[in-house]
Amino acid sequence: MDKQFEKLMRQGSERMGVSLTDVQLEQFYRYFVMLVETNKVMNLTAITEMEDVVAKHFLDSLALIKVGENLNREISLIDVGTGAGFPGIPLKIAFPDLQVTLLDSLNKRVKFLNEVIEQLELRKISAIHGRAEDFGSNCDYREKYDYCVSRAVANLSTLSEYCLPFVKVGGRFFAYKSGEVEEEVNFATSAVQKLGGLITDIVKFSLIEAEAERSFVVIEKRSITAKRYPRKAGMPSKEPLK
């Protein structure tokens, strides 16, 4: 393992209160290598420098602990629009008891995720290919998860329609956001309520000095999502709920 990588990951995770074993650090490094190598032939991320990947992908993913949740237990979690595996794979590496589903609409990314899962010998994690609108209506996935997470780039109304149908009543949806979020949250409040949710908290944090502020919008699932949601593919983004 690269010594600089080990130093960055160990120091960064310890500052966040996450303790990583040597095995977990090695898994993160192998993931980093696979990400950079695969990115040469497939567009996975614009962020490839070691320091940036550690901070903006790995540590940012692990920042979920900042919302005060105990992740060292058997929690079912789905990562919607996971892309190259963020935040789902870093969370799985750091908190092995999590039961993780990775959902992405691009099949070649899912193939990459399955390679990572195999090479890192991760258990109780799967990657599935499909759209959130379709799987959110599937009884095998609908309202089956304790937590949903997403770093996907979409407004909160749209993202909530993608994500809340997956969450059990009593579960939570954690939206990773950057910059100012108050206006977006205010706009989404009514939509979230229509979907059976309630915005309960906004947790702000910064991973690197002088970097843009990051936020979690915490949404609790208070009631079953009406069967008409999510709407058919494309509608949540074209006509966000109000």
Characterize the structure shown.
This protein is α/β, with parallel strands linked by helices and 242 residues long. The chain has helices spanning 3-16, 22-39, 50-62, 88-94, 107-119, 132-135, 156-163, 182-194, 235-238, and strands at residues 76-80, 99-104, 125-129, 145-150, 167-178, 197-205, 214-221. The protein is 39% helix and 21% strand. Strand 4, helix 7 (156-163) and strand 5 form a beta-alpha-beta unit. Helix 1 (3-16) packs parallel to helix 3. The N and C termini lie far apart (49 Å).
Please sum up the structure shown.
Helices cover 39% and strands 21% of the residues. It is built from nine helices and seven strands; from the N terminus they run αααβαβαβαβαβαββα. Strands 3-2-1-4-5-7-6 form a seven-stranded mixed beta sheet, with helices on both faces.
Which strand order spans the largest sheet, edge to edge or round the barrel? 3-2-1-4-5-7-6
The overall strand count is 7
> Globular, elongated, flat, extended or rod-shaped: what is the shape?
globular
Question: How is the main sheet built?
Answer: 7 strands, mixed
Descriptive keywords:
242 residues; seven-stranded mixed beta sheet; 9 helices; alpha/beta
Protein topology:
Blueprint: H1 3-16, H2 22-39, H3 50-62, E1 76-80, H4 88-94, E2 99-104, H5 107-119, E3 125-129, H6 132-135, E4 145-150, H7 156-163, E5 167-178, H8 182-194, E6 197-205, E7 214-221, H9 235-238
Parallel strand pairs: 1-2, 1-4, 2-3, 4-5
Antiparallel strand pairs: 5-7, 6-7
